[in-house]
Amino acid sequence: MYSLLIVDDEPTVSAGLRMYFDWTAYGIEVVGEADDGDVALEMIARQTPDLILTDVRMPNLDGITMSQRISAAYPDVKIVFVSGHDDADYLKSAMKVSAVDYIFKPVNLQELSAVIKRVVTDLDAERAERRNKEELLVKLKEGMPLLREKFLLSLIEEGAPKTELEERISFLGLELPVESPYWIMVVSVDDLADVMASRSERDRQLLWYSVLNIYQELLGTYMRGYAFERRGGEFIGVLRPEHGGNSMSDTAEALFALAGDLRSNLERWLKIGVTIGIGDMAAGLSGLALAYKQAREAADYKWYLGKNRIITMDSLESAGQGDGSSLPKYDYELNEKLISALKADDAEKLSEAVKRIFVSMSHGRPDGLKYGRNLCLQLVLAVGQHVMELGAADPELEAMEAELTEALYAKETLGDMHQLIEEYLFAALGRIREKRLGKTANVVERVRAYIDQHYAEVGLTVADIGKAVYLSSTYVSLLFKQETGGTIGEYLTQVRVDKAKELLRDPQYKFYDICHAIGYTDPSYFTKLFKKVTGVTPSAYRDGHA
User: Fold this and answer.
1) What is the band of 395 on the pLDDT scale with cuts at 50, 70, 90?
2) pLDDT digits (tens, 9 = 90+) for 288-309
3) Cα separation of 146 and 502, whole Å?
4) Where are the alpha helices (DSSP H) in 301-346?
5) At CB < 8 A and 24+ separation, what contacts does 461-470 make?
6) How far apart (Å, rounded) are the C-alpha atoms in residues 283 and 183?
7) Distance from C-alpha of 37 to C-alpha of 445, rounded to nearest angstrom
8) From CA 15, how far away is CA 357, in angstroms rounded?
């Protein structure tokens, strides 16, 4: 409903307008009547109507003067004049100032109806526009975090805009003095491929949300600034000192304290490791793009310096990063030495050759991770070709090569790639050796013999067993399964259970001692395992063989 105030010094006119016109049909409620302009202004101050129907000539304050004051104070109020024909010229000039329409006395109801209909249409349109603006403002408020993040991303990727910068910062409600010193801190989640693979999309989003919350909360403890996500697994902090007068040493201390606290909290609460890169100081918002590039480059140097570290530009300089123009080139003779070790069936020389290859890769260079992957892929191709030339290729080794190519792209450090390549090379060495021997049974027997001798070792793994027979854990598992139909783990368990049975039949051995004698430290776990294999508990077995 819209509200209406009737202003006229003639009571009969006011009463007639109120009583003989169906205002409710137009969604209007008459909320008051005034007999003069000054009285009307007092009433409007208490309750502002949507529409005013007013006479022009009144004794104390005429309708024209009143409408001018109303328009100045309440610009949304609609005013319609009601006056005699002799005021026509006066009304036309007044219409230019404030009123939306006018009607001559005596009032014709049809004419009044047409005027009110037009006024209501205008009120409806304005109300709809206001409602639309309110909804847009609500959406704008809800979307403000996204707009801020978009702006911050533009600062680090494209640089600060040259025009309207301060106006945009003010609109977004950000505290970013244009000329303040800033630092960029990049937080890169380690082993990202594994972190992503082990979680559903919902859990990933929850994880990133938690990382960002911890980052922003800790940031506020040490400095001022904003944290935001650039992409999955990478979080950016735009940081500035708590007080403009802080010394560089105080600021550096705060930066490293924040980085250390952030790293330990993420590991403690979210069980993830991170590498943190910090760029040089930016002298104002215009320098953020360069500072981000430096911080990102520092974080990327995990491939060389290792994961779970705090890396600064100083770290890179001390690590030997230059402009890349004088970086040592890879010595491809090392590949020949590796192939020679394979041909000679010399596991020790093979391990040494791999080590020398990766040492030669260990030079700080901007493209280090990509460079290392390419060299590793070349190694795999060279070794695969050699295996084929010897006629030693088989489906298991080919499958391992295919998986290796994909796995290399998930590795983030030189050490991880080293381990992956060495595992593959020892698998190839084992396959070549088997080809020469003409049988795989020998490998299986050596695996069994090693387990029979070392079953009592706590924490004995397939990797340990593979290393003992000069094969990778993956490949030795495939061979054992192919030859016996069972897994190495199943054989180890059976050996331990058989030994446990033997000891349980002798009452002098206590259960706790038996558990440790066969390589287990947790009696509860051993009990469950024993029952799973034999169908009875160790106690029941001993009672049945007393």
Assistant:
1) confident
2) 999 999 999 889 888 888 899 9
3) 68
4) 302-305, 313-318, 333-343
5) 462/488, 462/489, 466/426, 469/430, 469/443, 470/347, 470/426, 470/429, 470/430, 470/433
6) 9
7) 112
8) 104
Tokens 């090379």: give the residue.
Answer: 425
Closest CA to 469 of 438, 439, 445: 445
What's the predicted TM-score (pTM) here? Answer: 0.60
C-alpha 371: how far from chain center? 27
The helix or strand, by DSSP H or E, that contains position 342, with its residue range, turns out to be helix 333-343
Per this entry, what is the length of the chain? 546
pLDDT band at 403 (very low <50, low <70, confident <90, very high): confident
Residue 440: pLDDT over 90: no
DSSP lists the bridge partners of residue 239 as 183, 225
Q: Which residue has the tokens 């280090």?
A: 368
Q: For residue 159, what is the DSSP state?
A: -
Q: Are strands 282-283 and 310-312 parallel, antiparallel or unpaired?
A: unpaired
- Strand 310-312 to strand 274-278: parallel, antiparallel, or no bridges (unpaired)? parallel
The mean of the pLDDT values for the chain is: 87
Tens of pLDDT, residues 202-248: 999 999 999 999 999 999 999 999 999 998 899 999 999 876 546 78
Write out the DSSP string of 212-253: HHHHHHHHHHH-EEEEEEEETTEEEEEEE-SSTT--HHHHHH
Asked if 361 and 304 touch (Cβ cutoff 8 Å), the reply is no
What is the identity of the amino acid at 333?
A: E
Q: What is the pLDDT of residue 326?
A: 45
